[in-house]
Amino acid sequence: MLKQFFPILGRRVHDTVPLTYLDSAATSHAPLPVIEAISNYYLNHRSNVHRGIHQLSEESTQVWEDSRQVVERFLGAGAGELIITRNATEALNGVAYGWGWHQVEAGDVIISTVMEHHANLVPWQELAKNKGAELRLLEVDEAGRLNLEPLPGWLEQLPVKLVAISHVSNTLGTINPISEVVSMVRKYGRSSTRVVVDGAQAVPHLPVDFHSLGADFYAFSGHKMLGPMGIGGLLVRRELLDTNEMRPWLFGGGMIEGVMRDRAVYHSDPAERFTAGTPDVASMVGLAAACQFLTDQVGGMAVAAAHDQKLIQLTLQVLKDFPQVTVIGPTLPRTSAVELDRSGSVAFVYEGVHAHDVAQILDSEGVAVRSGHHCTMPLHQACGWVASTRVSFQIYNDEADIETFARALKKVHTVFGV
Ligand code: ALA
Questions:
Q1: Which residue in the list 71, 375, 379, 391 is annotated as catalytic?
Q2: Which residue from 27, 37, 36, 33 is spatially nearest to 5, judged by alpha carbons?
Q3: Is 325 helix (H, G, I), strand (E, B) or coil?
Q4: Coil, strand or helix: which one is 212?
Q5: Quick check: 196 pLDDT over 80?
Q6: How far is CA 54 from CA 231, 279, 351, in A?
Q7: Which of 317, 402, 416 shows the shortest CA–CA distance to 367?
Q8: Where are the beta strands (DSSP E) in 140-179?
Q9: For residue 196, what are the β-bridge partners?
Q10: Strands 160-166, 12-13: parallel, antiparallel or unpaired by DSSP?
Q11: What is the signed CA dihedral for 390, 393, 398, 401, rounded to 10 degrees?
């Protein structure tokens, strides 16, 4: 029983009701080994990294570097390919400022999709606006899958500099075919066209191998994958670092080899070059502990993905008993030969009751979900939804949680009569 590693899941809310936590797509919980790793760092090793010639500083530097290696390996990245950030949003902004600011020019095209959460859309709007570039969005079909049909033509005919796409949609749950998109970009795009993947909702549930996916950039957050809040990363294809195509966007101490009165020489090692200022070592230690937990206690990401599929199927099954509920995103596999291409969450519209009211009733029964637009306003607008309610999962959720959710949802009907 993995729940025993998460003491917070044993608490009650509203004084009496046991908590049923189904909001892990917003933020997951951290298991005891992650909390203990952070606490152990503060109790025994806290000191600045790469700065002191004393034992604590050396220990701190060692755990910082070891943690980086653990995370790089967990995601199938090579040494130095991880830029450590506060979260996926900062990682995506890093692509905009560290790459886009000097690569994108007036007349260029940036392609994204209407299903992106705001972190993988607003930076590109800002970049396009500042550079005089055009932002084009791929649309979704009725089932909640991307319509990739226009992509080869756009890549062939337009000066496309960047394709920005989420691996898993935080609202539809759709798993996008990243390898297929990367292949299209390599086949039809220019040699300078880059692909950035927002992996915030994929890394917590799916095995992710950066090199196999073939993307140029891959962003993720620690707090959705059982790690601490305030730590995440950007994986960057090594060649882009070595050729200086991807450049630092934060400057100061720690990332330099030498500073003159009027200029500075930046560190040749990318692991250093992209770490300006004192880093959040404790959170990095916690993130590495989360990767270790997912590998050792959970049994690896294939096990996590299978567990996630089971919870999705159960949720889709219980929602069939609610004729007033419309599920958002794929509910059937694309073809009979493949698994359902969705992950992490099930969002729905409850006909006749606003999503915030649904969430409030669920909360009164101890069931924590997210309601509203989930930071995907363009998607909600495109699909004509005012708001939706989303249940989302992690490895600590079980069948009993879905049953509690289904019982609580019946109360919405009792209260609102619809
Ligand atoms: N993007 C996060 C979510 O989906 C915050 O809830």
A1: 375
A2: 33
A3: strand
A4: helix
A5: yes
A6: 26, 18, 64
A7: 402
A8: 160-166
A9: 164, 217
A10: unpaired
A11: -30
Q: Which two tokens stand for residue 100?
A: 């886009």
What are the structure tokens assigned to 111, written together? Answer: 């392609």
Q: Whose CA is nearest to atom 2 of ligand 1?
A: 26
pTM (2 decimals)?
0.97
Q: Are the beta carbons of 400 and 318 closer than 8 angstroms?
A: no
The answer for residues whose C-beta is within 8 angstroms of residue 130's C-beta and 6 or more apart is none
Q: Whose CA is nearest to atom 3 of ligand 1?
A: 26
Q: Is 282 in the pocket of ligand 1 (CB under 6 A)?
A: no
Task: Tell me the per-residue pLDDT of 280-318, one tens digit each, with 9 for 90 and over.
Answer: 999 999 999 999 999 999 999 999 999 999 999 999 999
Residue 158, pLDDT > 80, answer yes
Question: Does 383 participate in catalysis according to the annotation?
Answer: no
- Give the three-state DSSP class for 27: coil
Q: Do residues 364 and 321 lie in contact, with contact meaning Cβ atoms separated by under 8 Å?
A: no
| pLDDT above 80 for 199 | yes
Cα of 170 vs centre of ligand 1, distance in Å, is 6
What lies within 8 Å, CB to CB, of 175 at 6+ separation is 167, 168, 202, 206, 341, 342, 343
Inter-axis angle of helices 150-157 and 178-188, to 10 degrees?
Answer: 30
- Over range 61-73, report the average pLDDT: 97
Antiparallel, parallel or unpaired: β 160-166 and 194-198:
parallel
| 356 contact partners, CB below 8 Å, separation of at least 6 | 371, 372, 387
Integer Cα distance of 200 and 117 in angstroms: 10
- Quote the DSSP letter at residue 373: -
Would you say 151 and 138 are in contact if contact means Cβ atoms under 8 Å apart?
yes
Nearest residue to 148 (alpha-carbon basis) of 118, 117, 121, 187: 187
Residue 199 has which token pair? 């992996």
pLDDT in the model for residue 51: 75
Q: Can you tell me the distance from the alpha carbon of 209 to that of 180, in angstroms, rounded to the nearest whole number?
A: 15
Q: How far apart are CA 219 and CA 236, in angstroms?
A: 9
Beta strands 109-113 and 134-138, pairing class: parallel
Short-list 296, 254, 269, CA closest to 78: 269
Q: How many helices (H) and strands (E) does the chain have?
A: 15, 17
- Please answer whether residues 295 and 382 qualify as being in contact, where contact means their C-beta atoms are separated by less than 8 angstroms: no
Radius of gyration of the chain (CA): 22
Query: Which amino acid residue places its CA nearest to atom 6 of ligand 1?
Result: 26
d(C-alpha 223, C-alpha 208), whole Å: 16
